[in-house]
Automatic annotation (TrEMBL):
TM helices/strands, residue ranges: 7-29
Biological or metabolic pathway of the protein: Cell wall biogenesis; peptidoglycan biosynthesis
One Gene Ontology molecular-function label: peptidoglycan L,D-transpeptidase activity
Protein name, UniProt field: L,D-TPase catalytic domain-containing protein
GO biological process assignments: cell wall organization; peptidoglycan-protein cross-linking; regulation of cell shape
Organism in which the protein naturally occurs: Candidatus Gottesmanbacteria bacterium GW2011_GWB1_43_11
Length: 229
C-alpha cells in the first residue's frame, strides 16, 4: 500500500468513525429511557402507588390522567385528510397536518442530554401512561418519572420505537421552546393529549395500542438542528 492509499484509508476511517459517532451511536445508545417489557405490561393505566418521582435531583408529583374524553372534547373539527406530524427542532415546534391544512402548532422541548433523531418515522406504539427512568445519578441527570401521560413512541427501520423516542406530556418542567429532554419530544400535557388522540393508530377504546398494517401509525418527519441551550 503506497502513501496515497494509506492517506485515503486513514481519511475514510476518520470520516466513517465520525459518522458512526454522530449519526448512529447517539440514537442506538441514548441515555434516555427505553421501555421494558414489564413497563409496557402496565397497559397504560395510571399507577396511584407510584405518584412521586424525581428529575435531575428535584422531587416531582406525577399528573393524574383523567378518563378518556370524547374526541370532539379534545380535538374540535378535523377534515379527515391524510395526517402527518412535523417536528421543527430549530424552532422547537411540532406541527400536525391534515393534507395541506395545519391543524395544530405546539411548542416543544427536544433533546438536550441526548439527541432527538432526525428523519422520517411513524407512530408505532401509544400508551396513556408510562413509567420512564434513566440518566445517571453521578452526573445529576437521573430521572424516575411515573405516569408520564399521552406517550407516542415513534421509530423506523433503523431506529426502532423500543429505543424510547416519543412524544409525551411533561409535568416536571415548563421550559417549552428550549431543549430539555434526553431525546424525546417533551410537550405541555394539554398539547400532548390532543396529539395523542388525533394521531393514529386508532385507540379503539384501549389505553395502549401498537400500530399494525390494518391500523397504521401517523407519519412523523423530524428536521432541523437543536439550538444550543
Amino acid at each position: 500500500m503506497n502513501l496515497a492509499q494509506k492517506l485515503l484509508l486513514g481519511a475514510a476511517l476518520v470520516f466513517g468513525g465520525a459518522y458512526l459517532y454522530f449519526s448512529v451511536l447517539p440514537y442506538h445508545f441514548s441515555p434516555q429511557y427505553q421501555p421494558t417489557k414489564e413497563d409496557l405490561e402496565l397497559g397504560g393505566v395510571y399507577d396511584k402507588s407510584k405518584e412521586h418521582g424525581t428529575w435531575h435531583g428535584q422531587n416531582t408529583l406525577s399528573y393524574y390522567i383523567p378518563e378518556p374524553r370524547k374526541l370532539a372534547q379534545v380535538l374540535g373539527d378535523t377534515n379527515g385528510a391524510a395526517k402527518r406530524i412535523e417536528v421543527d427542532l430549530t424552532n422547537q415546534h411540532v406541527y400536525a397536518f391534515e393534507g395541506d391544512k395545519k391543524v395544530f402548532d405546539f411548542l416543544i422541548s427536544s433533546g438536550k442530554w441526548g439527541l432527538t433523531p432526525t428523519g422520517t418515522f411513524t407512530i408505532q406504539y401509544k400508551t396513556r401512561s408510562q413509567l420512564m427512568k434513566g440518566g445517571t445519578q453521578a452526573l445529576g441527570t437521573y430521572y424516575y418519572l411515573p405516569n408520564v401521560p399521552y406517550v407516542q413512541f415513534f421509530g423506523n427501520s433503523e431506529i426502532p420505537w423500543s429505543k424510547g423516542f416519543s412524544f409525551h406530556g411533561t409535568y416536571w418542567h415548563n421550559n417549552f421552546g428550549h431543549p430539555m429532554s434526553h431525546g424525546c419530544i417533551n410537550m405541555r400535557i394539554e398539547d400532548a393529549e390532543k396529539l395523542y388522540y388525533w394521531a393514529t393508530p386508532e385507540l379503539n377504546g384501549k389505553a395502549s395500542i401498537k400500530a399494525t398494517s390494518e391500523n397504521p401509525g401517523t407519519p412523523v418527519i423530524i428536521y432541523g438542528i437543536t439550538p444550543a441551550s
